[in-house]
Every structure is written in C-alpha cells, then in structure tokens.
Amino acid sequence: MNIGFDAKRLFNNFTGLGNYSRFVLNALCDFEPGHHYVLYTPKTRKHPEVTPLVGRAQVQVVTPPWSYTIFKAASLWRTVGIAGEASVKTLQVFHGLSQELPVNLPTGIKKIVTVHDLIFLRFPRLYNPIDVAIYKTKVNAACKSADVVVAISQQTAQDLIDFLQVPASKIKVVYQGCHPQFNTVATPNQIQEVKKKYALPERFVLNVGTLETRKNVLLLIQALALQKPAERLPVVIVGKETAYKKQVVEEAQQSGVLESLIFLHEVPFQEFPALFQGAEVFVYPSLFEGFGIPLVEAMASGIPVITSTGSCFSEAAGPGSLYVDPENAEELAHQLSRVLSDGELRKQMIADGKKFIGQFRPEVIAKDLMALYQG
C-alpha cells in the first residue's frame, strides 16, 4: 500500500504530537515494512530524531513546490495544496496524525485522522478564544471528512461523541506508546551524572509536565505540606515554565515546603530516562488528559505511579498504579507515604506497570493501524 501522512509535527515538534508522529512511522516501518510511506510537510528539519526515519527505504518526503515557498504560503499548501500533489494520486490511505486533514483529497483515498484530545473544548477558559475557534474548526472539519477517526483513548473517543457529535461507529481507539529510549536501562553512572548535573538529591519524587493549571501541581505541594517533615522527600518538577509557576511557589512558601521543590525547565529529552529511573515515585495529579504519555514513560522506566482518578488515567496507568481524587491533598499525601515506606508495594506496582504497558508496544500499535488502513 501507499500511505500518506500529514507530517508537519513529525519534522518540527519534539514533544507530544511530534513524538506521536515519529512513534507511528517508526513502528510502521519496523513492523509493517512492506508498504510505502509518504510524508507531506511544509518544511523539513535535520534532527537526530528525524534523520534516521526519513532515511528509511520505505519513506518518501514531499514538500511544497517553489510557488508556495516563494510566497511563504507553506501552511496554505498543507491545507489545500497537498491534494494537488501528483504523489497523492497513488495513495490508498491518507492519515492526518495531528487532528487535521487536507481538504479536497481524492475520493478514492481512505481518509483517517488521529484526534489526541479536545481539552480546548472541555476547558476553554485555559485557552485564547481565537485559538479555541481555530482548533474546533480544524478538528471538526477533519472528523467530518474522515472515513475513520482514531482516538488515542476511550476518554477522547467519548469526548468526540459528546462535544462534536462524531458517530461512535466512525471512531476507533488505538493507543499510543512512549519513545523507545524509556525502555533502555540507564547505568548507575548515567543516573548519577544527571543527578549531579541538576544538583538533585539521592531520593526524590518526580513530576513531569508543563507548569499549567490543568496539570494540578498545587495538589502535590499541598500533599507535601501534609506529610511529616521526616518522611518528606524533595519534589523535582520538570516542564515548561508558565505564569502558573508563581501560584505554585506562593503555595509552597505559605505551606513551608518551598525548600523541598526543585524546578527544572530545560532538560534535554535524552536525559529523561535517567531522570525517571533515578526517582522514587512519579506523581501526576493532572485534572484531565487526552492520554497521559508521561504515565507510560514512568512505568517503562520502572518506577511506581500515583495519578488522578477520572479522565483517561486508568487507561494509561493501569491497575497497578495508585489513584487519588485530584482535589484531595490528604489522599495524595497518604498514598505518597505508602509508596515511599512500603518496599513490597513498590515492587508490585513496578511489576504490574511493566506488564500493563505491553499493550502500548510499537508492534501492537503498528498492527492496529494497519488493520484500519486495510479494513
């Protein structure tokens, strides 16, 4: 089969949507190698995560013709120009990997779009109103034109039904996996080097994610304050800094735990496995996610997970993790103390997590997607 992809994020984003796009293409090339994969992108970029992928024999890259680039209209090409590319006429499937599809694709092509989340509709107050309108217009148009809508979780599938009235019969849930680097065991020296670089203590609690309201780090600060000082571990908070950090710092100051917080805002992605593997426990008290890939990264890294009830969290973290009400600091403090003091519980959570994430392996994802392409 000839399968086309909207690959803008694959080339130019090195977090969520970009990681998902590269994961999908690498999985397909590794486990469904007998097909031809065409990547359509407004611009390319040389990067260690991208170069090996585009060098694969099954992969072809298509960029805008000069008539679009000379007038700086590459984004327009992504929306309306791709359909006119000669290579599109050879495709059997076109898959939009990041909630969008080009318009006017030939009728003979099976059109598939992946929708990651509709958080902008569930929590519009967290977004610029203009952005909400743009995001909604794009995803709504893509879902209407698609033959199949891939949701990355049952939660996202339900949101598609509730917010956009996408027919349930049109939606297929295909989970996502984490970057393969999280399956590599860091050496003790590598872990110590990362700890030394960022002046981290020997034992710490880890939280990863953009410092924003929805990620709910305030709950972790409140739980920390409820613990006895003797059992309290430092908390390493890794993620992009936003205005929300001010609230976190103020809460920590008022609670007397600011000295227990370590903020890291510029950690290279390749250092994440050692950072995860050096932690005692991963705490993710988010209010809502489309899936929650850091939960999978933590379990792949072999550390226990505490996360929120509701949303998609049980889908991503499985039965071996611990769950707390994202508005109950006492509950989080209790579960955190349990994990830090009970070695047998930790071992069981780690083993259960490793077993659970087997369903997110690349060979499973590749098989599920190819079944959609060929179905």
Automatic annotation (TrEMBL):
Gene3D superfamilies: Glycogen Phosphorylase B. The keyword Secreted does not apply. Signal peptide: none annotated. InterPro entries: Glyco_trans_1, Glyco_trans_4-like_N. Residues 33-180 form the Glycosyltransferase subfamily 4-like N-terminal domain. It comes from the Bacteria. The keyword Transmembrane does not apply. Residues 195-355 form the Glycosyl transferase family domain. Keywords: Transferase. Transmembrane segments: none annotated. This is Glycosyltransferase family 4 protein. It comes from Chryseolinea lacunae.
